Write a sequence for this structure.
């Protein structure tokens, strides 16, 4: 039998589903009478109501329910409940349509996809951009490197789904992540957090607001977070795998000399050291495995072979100046100026266990454990102007942006270990001067982008102002000038000609947006939207020819419904979208072959070429979010995303591949880092006590698995281009939880203490999220992180 509260919750869920389906029908939209005034709410009703979520997706503060796009928001409290240190911790699928993953084994560079669009393969290159824009306080972060740094005192993290090409611009074809930090208040506040956890982890945060002096408010944020390796390295003195050590400082000064003007300056500096993930051998290939090449089909605690490993270190600094002026009651002028600088080393020797096979079967003197050392350096300057205002029934946003960045990289790769016996059971570490190893590739690129945009929403005097018509347009011009000047320790050699390869390309683009929002009632809103977005073109620094590829683009139609029921105790939002995906940037890897003077020559390094797929692909999907407060102090949430992306078959540019197929044969391309099904559920419960509150949070996150190497097809039959296979990652279900005795009154003014325990991957579920297959060496993959847990103390005053 159901309890009274359970019975009430079931009735609410059933009524919500019924009302939602009814609201979607054309008859309801055209004939529904005006809603009757709501009955006066009692104090108990109001305590259980869902609060407004304020977002800035349209460059002005407004509630998410009245913003006509699909949007998900994680507040600072949501991130704390999940013990999120950096964006890398969102790999668990907290937002089903957002996929965050490390680039291969490197937590120092992140792949970010929304709705299956963003990065198909390698976004870790100077002249290659991601398709999801990441913004912090309105400043665009141009590189995948640096996204793993610790987050500072976040107010909200908005995930804007679908093309955001009009208001947010280039490289937002999948969407945008809009992060906002907490601003200085001008009053004294302090918030200090200290905690310990397993794997030697610890975290300390400090946030101090100082009283305003002469109209200047100052805020200081500091964070230190550390975790020992999750997988031990048998080599004495070498770092383990999947370790991190992050710390950072942010200083912000807000000056408000008058009520109409403010100047907000911030400086931040971050240090992020991490080691690579450990790649495990899951199944043998056709080559003979060394005796040390044992299979590890469950998540390993210790690597089966030791190899040199050291932390990759990222250092990021940034300056940001936001000016805001209100010359009139309905007009706001903004200026956002930013300069950022980063350096990132990438040291990866986590794949030694998958290099222990040999075609001859005799291992004496065979080198293995490929160490990849890469250096990356970037600086960027951006200037954006915005005018945000209202003219009667017209709300508008207009602006212009200038962006310029310089990026350079180099990379080395060499073996560090060598077998000393025929069976492959013993080995030695090669005595190498790492600095003396040849540079396998090096490049530099300068990107300049300028754009102008405008968007306006008009509310005609019809149906009690229930209709809102929005149109937007953005023009952008991107230019890239680059050089690939080193390949295999020398100048590139293409068709027998040696010399630096140059990139000199530019592209212009116009992205429109149309949106119709109808307020069916106070709590029911229906919208239809068409928008476009694109990812800039570039060149692949892993190639030999350094040929330019063109931008890729999406054009999407989206329909959505946003509803609230039962005196704002229940909220249900759903959207469906479908669109085209054109000129998709597809990578192919192989040994590059050329014919020089009639002789077939094969390069001695793996080469990657990037092509724009011919033909038109497509994306479509459904997203739904539900929240319910059936009784005071209990909040239930659920979200779901179905995502399908189709990319046209594309011809492999290499003359020959591993299976012997011929050149220019179209092969299937798998969309990567895109689970077809994703879901997340949350439970939050509070128990008020005398002088304290018990708070409990639990979230469960599911995805159906995804491809990680869909753009590098593996052929299982020579001369049979249709026989293509790529392994798909396992499905996953990750549970996180927090339990806290919060806001304890310690009898000292406003001081409050919170004691909490937390766990990530509470059930210690294990799955292989990344799988790759080689016919000769076998199947390998990365496991998700083991269960981590800890406790912390928070003091506020």
């Amino acid at each position: 039998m159901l309890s009274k509260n359970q019975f009430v919750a079931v009735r609410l869920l059933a009524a919500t589903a019924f009302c939602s389906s009814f609201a979607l029908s054309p008859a309801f939209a055209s004939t529904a009478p005006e809603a009757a005034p709501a009955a006066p709410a009692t104090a108990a009703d109001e305590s259980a109501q869902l609060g407004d979520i304020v977002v800035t997706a349209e460059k002005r503060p407004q509630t998410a329910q009245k913003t006509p796009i699909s949007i998900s928001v994680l507040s600072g409290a949501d991130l704390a409940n999940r013990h999120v240190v950096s964006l890398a911790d969102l790999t668990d699928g907290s937002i089903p349509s957002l996929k965050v993953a490390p680039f291969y084994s490197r937590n120092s560079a992140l792949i970010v996809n929304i709705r299956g669009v963003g990065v198909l393969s390698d976004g870790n290159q100077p002249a290659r951009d991601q398709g999801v824009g990441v913004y912090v306080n309105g400043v665009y972060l141009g590189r995948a490197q640096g996204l793993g740094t610790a987050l500072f005192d976040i107010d909200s993290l908005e995930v804007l789904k679908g093309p955001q090409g009009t208001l947010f611009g280039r490289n937002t074809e999948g969407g945008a992540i809009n992060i906002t930090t907490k601003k200085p208040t001008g009053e004294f506040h302090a918030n200090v957090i200290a905690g310990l956890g397993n794997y030697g982890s610890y975290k300390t945060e400090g946030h101090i607001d100082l009283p305003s002096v002469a109209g200047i408010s100052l805020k200081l944020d500091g964070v230190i977070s550390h975790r020992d390796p999750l997988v031990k390295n048998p080599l004495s003195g070498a770092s383990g795998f999947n370790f991190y050590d992050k710390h950072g400082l942010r200083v912000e000064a807000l000056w408000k000399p008058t009520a109409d003007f403010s100047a907000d300056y911030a400086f931040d500096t971050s240090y992020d050291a991490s080691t690579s993930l450990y790649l495990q051998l899951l199944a043998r290939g056709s080559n003979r495995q060394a005796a040390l090449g044992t299979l590890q089909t469950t998540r390993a605690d210790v690597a089966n072979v030791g190899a040199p490993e050291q932390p990759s270190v990222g250092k990021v600094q940034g300056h940001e100046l936001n000016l805001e002026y209100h010359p009139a009651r309905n007009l706001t002028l903004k200026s956002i100026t930013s300069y950022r600088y980063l350096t990132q080393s990438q040291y990866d020797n986590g794949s030694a266990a998958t290099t222990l096979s040999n075609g001859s079967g005799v291992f004496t003197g065979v080198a293995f454990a490929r160490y990849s050392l890469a250096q990356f350096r970037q600086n960027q300057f951006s200037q954006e102007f915005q005018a945000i205002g209202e003219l009667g029934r017209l709300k508008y946003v207009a602006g212009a942006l200038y962006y310029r960045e310089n990026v350079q990289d180099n990379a080395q790769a060499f073996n560090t270990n060598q077998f000393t016996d025929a069976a492959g059971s013993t080995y030695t570490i090669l005595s190498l001067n790492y600095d003396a190893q040849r540079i396998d590739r090096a490049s530099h690129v300068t990107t300049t982008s300028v754009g102008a945009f405008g968007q306006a929403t008009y509310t005609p005097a019809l149906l009690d102002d229930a209709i809102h018509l929005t149109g937007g347009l953005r023009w952008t011009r991107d230019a890239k000038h680059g050089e690939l000047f080193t390949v295999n320790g020398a100048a590139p050699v293409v068709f027998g000609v040696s010399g630096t390869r140059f990139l000199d390309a530019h592209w212009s683009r116009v992205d429109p947006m149309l949106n119709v929002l109808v307020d069916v009632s106070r709590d029911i809103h229906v919208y239809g939207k068409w928008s476009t977005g694109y990812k800039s073109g570039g060149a692949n620094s892993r190639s030999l020819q350094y040929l330019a590829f063109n931008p890729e683009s999406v054009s999407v139609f989206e329909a959505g419904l946003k509803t609230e029921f039962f005196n704002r105790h229940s909220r249900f939002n759903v959207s469906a979208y479908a669109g085209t995906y054109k000129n998709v940037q597809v990578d192919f890897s192989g040994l590059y072959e050329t014919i020089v003077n009639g002789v077939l020559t094969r390069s001695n390094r793996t080469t990657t070429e990037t092509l724009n797929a011919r033909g038109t692909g497509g994306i479509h999907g459904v997203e739904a979010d539900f929240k319910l407060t059936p009784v005071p102090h209990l909040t239930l949430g659920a979200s779901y995303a179905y995502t399908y992306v189709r990319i046209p078959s594309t011809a492999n540019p290499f003359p020959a591949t591993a299976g012997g197929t011929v050149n220019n044969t179209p092969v299937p391309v798998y969309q990567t880092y895109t689970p077809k099904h994703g879901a997340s559920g949350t439970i939050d419960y509070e128990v008020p006590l005398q002088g304290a509150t018990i708070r409990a949070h639990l979230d469960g996150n599911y995805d159906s698995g995804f491809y990680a190497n869909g753009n590098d097809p593996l052929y299982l039959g020579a001369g049979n281009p249709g026989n293509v296979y790529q392994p798909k990652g396992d499905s996953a279900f990750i549970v996180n939880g927090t339990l806290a005795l919060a806001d304890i009154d310690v009898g000292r003014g406003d001081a409050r203490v919170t004691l909490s325990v937390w766990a990530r991957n509470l059930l210690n579920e294990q799955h292989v999220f990344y799988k790759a297959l080689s016919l000769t060496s076998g199947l390998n993959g990365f496991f998700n992180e083991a269960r981590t847990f800890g406790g912390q103390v928070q003091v506020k005053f």
Remarks:
- The helical segments are 4-24, 26-31, 43-47, 76-81.
- The first strand starts at residue 54 and ends at 55.
- The radius of gyration is 27 Å.
